[in-house]
Amino acid sequence: MNSRPNPEPxxxxxxxxxxxxxxxxxxxxPxxxxxxxxxxxxxxxxQRQHRGTGKKNMKTSIKAAALNIKGRGNPxxxxxxxxxxxxxxxxxxxxxxxxxxxxxxxxxxxxADIDSLFGRAIRLEFTPDETAPSARAGLxxxxxxxxxxxxxxxxxxxxxxxxxxxxxENVNGEELSILGVYAPNRPSDNAAFWRRIKAYYVANPRRKxxxxxxxxxxxxxxxxxxxxxxxxxxxxxDAFDELKTYLRLVDGWRETYPTTRAYTFLQPGxxxxxxxxxxxxxxxxxxxxxxxxxxxxxxxxxxxHRMVTVRLTTEDAPTLGHGRWVWPAHIxxxxxxxxxxxxxxxxxxxxxxxxxxxxxxxxRNPNYNAQTLWAKFKTDIGNKARERARIxxxxxxxEIAKLQNQRDTLWNDPELSEDDRxxxxxxxxxxxxxxxxxxxxxxxLTAQVRNRLEGEVIGEYWSRINKxxxxxxxxxxxxxxxxxxxxxxxxxxxxxxxxxxxxxYHDNLQEDRSDTPADIREEKINQVLNRIEAxxxxxxxxxxxxxxxxxxxxYALRKSASRKAPGLDGxxxx
Length: 574
Known about the structure:
InterPro entries: AP_endonuc_1, Endo/exonu/phosph_ase_sf, Endo/exonuclease/phosphatase
Pfam families: Exo_endo_phos
CATH architecture of the domain at 15-28 and 36-320: 4-Layer Sandwich
Organism: Favolaschia claudopus
Shape: globular
Number of strands: 17
Largest sheet: 6 strands, mixed
Region (Disordered): 1-41
Number of helices: 15
Cofactor: Mg(2+)
Low-confidence stretches: 1-55
Structural class: alpha+beta
CATH superfamily of the domain at 15-28 and 36-320: Endonuclease/exonuclease/phosphatase
Strand content: 5-15%
């Protein structure tokens, strides 16, 4: 008997494609100042003036990505070569909120199969090709229910199988509009495609302009984005530039890395090895400062495209910390670390014995005793664990990082000719892709083995994989306390300071004693205590006085639960 509960019901396949959203009245877009968007081909649409938006940002955010998967693979969604198992793994491991999937080759039947397998964890919206939905084109949005809210999500199809709008909630609850595209490859069709999208927005002036735009554009704006470098068809580029200007969009990756060469489509060496950055993401110009971590990365899915990613936040989003440090599980058996712990533990034991002898004579040092020595020991081994965690990395991850550094260096080496750069980088990228697939498949095999062993046994793993998927509830802000109730409210959005405010509030509640007279309070306490019938027997009293033996401590440690949350020191039970 299958003990796994039935998946939560999902909307019928394609329902999102048939529902027209209730559009807000945003009015026509404001006209840009004269000359602001005048394009000097092949330069960028606006001056590259923003720097540093690739740095780490700890605000609450949504991670969005775009990837051309080059078809769905085997038609059977349960087959190992079907790409949707791999897409779900990618979405989960990269903690993506939204993934724009180009060349998805989806139809209604395939979408229903995907929903039956992954509907508890993701929401899938798609637009199929009109003539051959399972053989060409196709665009899809994958929403991770663990990371974003999927209630109320609506889609609008602009070009069947090629362009679709997704309306969802941002991290602050406001509407977020995302335009996904998979543009035709033929230059004339490509130009007509951009003009058709612009015509849609012109015909719907009250339609919210996209906050985020991404997918496979099949063109580049600048020669730097191709290897060998060359410009693309002028009519197609101009049509795209007109759309981009009308929607007030900027290429966030290029704004962040103005002179860097990186590519998202890599032709195999046997076919010439040409490379291009045709997969891109754009953001509304006035939202660019709220984006960070623009990136291009190789994935373990069988495709000749790389994935582009970005994190999008809002100005008033709460700032989250790095989280509490936890002892990494993969270094528990590291020999260097265990030898260090053994050595420090023996030294600690000698010091504790000496402290015990001193305290028997009444010489207790408040700054040097069993408690302070134990705290220092845990701090020292914790610092050593942090050090080893930075050094001890899986061999495959180390090899991938090494090859990526070599490839990026060659891509941007001005001393190399374009042919040498192209051929060298193709070889490196093929090695990287092979290792990424191996890493991806190893992780998948591990998950499959655990699911086979524990997936049908009620326990911690079973409960976790079958619980409802929803994003973590985040307290956006707390009102700062004021002495004057008439004073204008001010709010705190930093999570660490919000935690301090909450702690102080509850501490003050504990100190807020009533004005009950001391004698009455004592009487009430005694009344409660007298109701307790259970008493410690003399035998139990004598047992509690006995000191624990070493074997009893070892027995308790062996019986302690594993996979439990560590304490403030971050040291795991294991």
